[in-house]
Amino acid sequence: MTNKIILAGFGGQGILFAGKLLAYAAMLEGKYLSWLPSYGPEMRGGTANCHVIISDVPIGSPIITSPDALIAMNAPSLDKFENELQPNGTEILDSSLIPRSSGRTDLSSVRVAATEIAEKMGKKGLANMVMLGAFLKKTGLFSIDSFKEAIKKLLSEKKQQLAEANINAVRAGFDAV
Amino acid sequence: MPEIIYKKPHSLSDKPFHYCPGCSHGLVHRLVTEVIDELGIADNTIAVAPVGCAVTADEYFRVDTVQAAHGRAPAVATGIKRALPDRVVFTYQGDGDLAAIGTAETVHSAARGENITIIFINNTIYGMTGRWRQPLCRVRSRRPRPTDATRTRRAIRCIFAKCSRRSTARLISRAQPLTACRI
Amino acid sequence: MSEAVLMKGNEAIGEAAIRSGCRHFFGYPITPQTELSAYMAKKMPKIGGTFLQAESEIAAINMVYGAAAAGVRAMTSSSSPGISLKSEGISYIAAADLPCVIVNIMRAGPGLGGIQPAQSDYFQATRGGGHGDYHLLVLAPNSVQEMACLTAEAFNLSEEYRIPAMILGDGTLGQMMEPVDFSLVPEPVFAEKPWAANAMRGRGAQNVVKTLYLSPEELEATIIEREKKYDIVRDSLQRYEAKFIDDADIILCSYGITSRIVETAVRELRNEGIKAGIIRPISLWPFPEKIFKRVRPKAYLSVEMSTGQMIEDVKLACECKAPVYFTGRTGGIIPEPSEIIDKVREIHREVC
After folding, report:
1. Which fold has domain A2-176?
2. How far apart are CA B50 and CA B57, in angstroms?
3. Which chains touch B (3 or more CB pairs under 8 A)?
4. Is A8 within 8 Å of A15 (Cβ atoms)?
5. What is the predicted pLDDT for the residue at B140?
6. Worst-scoring range by mean pLDDT, B91-105, B163-177, C61-75?
7. CATH no. for residue C247?
């Protein structure tokens, strides 16, 4: 079983961190994984992204050409990746910022108002966690518990007090879809 | 019994100098090794000899020596001093080396405050390659505006002045043009 | 994976270097290796080491030369244009038979090029970017784990054989994160350095680290001595990984990140019934010629992110006993498995 996930949004939305979290959760469960960020001009153009591969077998190329899941947090990211998704793939879109879906009938499409939900929780910056919660619900890839563990391990010591807020945001996303 | 009142420094080898007659290298070699002997640091010193007539200074200085590429002696000396902070590290550089190709290394080792000593032999020429002029060369000119050489000297002096306020690098300039350059 | 941590390739190199006893890093920022310098900047002061941001890549390599001459483990890193700048310094280090580790996280060239990954410095690394008769030990990792393990090996081998070592990575390997298990990274093995210019301190005799020999006879003699050492290295340090070669009709040769894509392609080709195999050189100098003498494919395919540089070594190694094809992308573009699969199918139609 191999999951190829692309997370994309504009620089500052915590796309890379969200990807790292998925990677960390995979590592804690003893799976093979790779995480590859975009760097350079893409960071400026509003399509900062990372490629996360989680697998039961050793991973070949860390570069994803046809993802089976896309977590998109802004419209340019949907524009860029919507046609690369494999048939029967999943798109998870932040409906607060992306007015449309891909319109493809061969995908399952999940819309979650992640930025709005995060704002209501008092921290707009947790929208990426809300998206992950929705992703977990849709794919069942990890349990919330193993995710909690990953959040605690990934956050530095100085930022441990943010762990609970992050976990709550994940839960909010999980419950919203 | 005659009293010995002067002798060749122990840290200076017996090898006859290959330098041109009248060249200041011989004199400065003697001065440097005399100081090394007086301070008793021969056993704790590492010399850096970059490209120039004195690249073979290891044959004259009886201390551990590292040859360096043209202009890079302060960088090499930085590497040595950072590796072995309790040794005395010095470079022995000509003017083409220090003030042309090596300007950046000279300025930045001073700006960082590296604890090294730079012995700077400014005879205003590239001796080894046939006495070509170099940026600090004094050039006689009837034109009232500053020449390139003067501008270069001013720029370098200005940078050294700024750096030396913060640094412990010592520059000993032997500005003795033995060959006057004429247009 | 008992002690696995998630790290970027660039950081894994830094951590492995520190665990190998390297306490002197002289660097300069350049994309895409800046994380390695940043990692060293953060860690070195905590362990009493030196991190120095030099005024240029040229100064940095000369600082490595000085520190190595003084007898310590020293390291620098850069990316393609910066390595060009270091060429003279690298030639000096090789000529003085000094150990050190130089990391090149390749990006697209020539000139300023781009910041995306490429493999167009193969010639520079293996044929000598600098002047003169010399070689570097060149190791090419293809995973974050290997970035760590090969760095540790590079320090040990470089000291043992008194030859500068280069880790040839690329932007993808440098930036990507994978789990690294540091318990698998080799322990440091420190060599005695009676030749080091570290001040006489009662030794009695002067140590000189030099590369100038004005007498041609003397210079030739030192070069020949060095060649004998290189012969030993050529014989004993060839490293490679080979998969599916026993019955392979077409053997694909690639290194670094490209080899990961090639492996994905080859697994799919095998599912299709095409007998493709892989030889992945891990040491680029010395090139692993020996394995090429043991295989008998109908064709070779060199896959590189360049216009074809390693292909020359493949041809030499197999003595062109079978046709050697090339496919690849350059300019910072990473080939996709489908491009490689299409090329192999085309070759298969021609030779099988």
Report:
1. Pyruvate-ferredoxin Oxidoreductase; domain 3 (3.40.920)
2. 9
3. C
4. yes
5. 54
6. B163-177
7. 3.40.50.920
Instruction: Work out the average pLDDT over C217-245.
Output: 97
Read off the CATH number of the domain in which B144 is found: 3.40.50.970
Nearest CA among C107, C216, C111 for reference residue C169: C107
Please state the rounded mean pLDDT for residues B101-114.
94
> By a Cβ cutoff of 8 Å, what residues of chain A touch chain C?
20, 23-24, 27, 30, 33-37, 39-40, 59-63, 65
Instruction: Look at A34 and C334 and tell me if their CB atoms are within 8 Å.
Output: no
Q: Which residues on adjacent β-strands are paired with residue A93?
A: A72, A111
pLDDT tens column, C204-226: 999 999 999 999 999 999 999 99
Chain A neighbours, 3+ Cβ pairs < 8 A: C
Q: How many domains in chain B?
A: 1
Residue B181 domain flag: no
- Chain C nearest-CA distance from B131, in A, is 20
Q: Which residue has the higher pLDDT, C218 or C31?
A: C218
Please report, rounded to a whole number, the percentage of residues in chain C having pLDDT higher than 70: 99
**Burial of C189: CB neighbours in 10 Å, binned 0-12, 13-18, 19+:** middle
Mutation test of the interface with chain C: which of B82, B101, B114, B115, choosing the one with the most C Cβ atoms within 10 A?
Answer: B82
- Residue B136 near residue B95 (C-beta atoms within 8 A): yes
State which residues form the domain around B66: 25-173
If you average pLDDT over every residue of chain C, what do you get? 96
Per-residue pLDDT reduced to its tens digit, A117-171: 999 998 888 999 999 999 999 999 988 888 888 998 888 777 888 888 999 999 9
Confirm whether B16 is domain-assigned.
Answer: no
Write the DSSP string, C116-167.
Answer: S---TTHHHHHTTSSSSS---EEE---SHHHHHHHHHHHHHHHHHHT--EEE
Whether there are 3 or more C-beta pairs closer than 8 Å between C and B is: yes
Beta carbons of B97 and B51 less than 8 angstroms apart? yes
- Same domain for C106 and C253, yes or no, is no
CATH assignment of the domain containing C100: 3.40.50.970
C213 in the same domain as C259:
no
Q: Is the pLDDT of residue C3 over 90?
A: no
pLDDT tens-digit readout, B128-147: 777 777 776 665 544 445 55
Q: What is the per-residue pLDDT for B152?
A: 61
Task: Judge contact between C120 and C109, C-beta under 8 A.
Answer: yes
Q: Is C352 on the interface with B (CB under 8 A)?
A: no
Q: What residues of B are in contact with residue C202 (Cβ under 8 Å)?
A: 43
Residue C286, preceding peptide bond in cis (omega within 30° of 0): yes
Is the model's pLDDT at C80 over the cut of 60?
yes
- Is C175 at the interface with chain B, CB within 8 A? no
Q: What is the domain extent for residue C98?
A: 4-236
Distance from CA of A112 to the nearest CA of C (A): 28
Would the CB atoms of C66 and B56 count as touching at under 8 Å? Answer: no
- Structure token pair of residue A100: 């449309």
User: Between vectors from CA C239 to CA C236 and to CA C241, what angle results, nearest 5°?
Assistant: 145
B75 is a domain residue: yes
Nearest Cβ partner of C172 from A24, A27, A62? Answer: A62
Inspect the interface and report whether the beta carbons of A23 and C6 lie closer than 8 Å: yes
Helix (H) or strand (E) holding C283: strand C283-285
Nearest by CB to C178, which of A34, A37, A60? Answer: A34
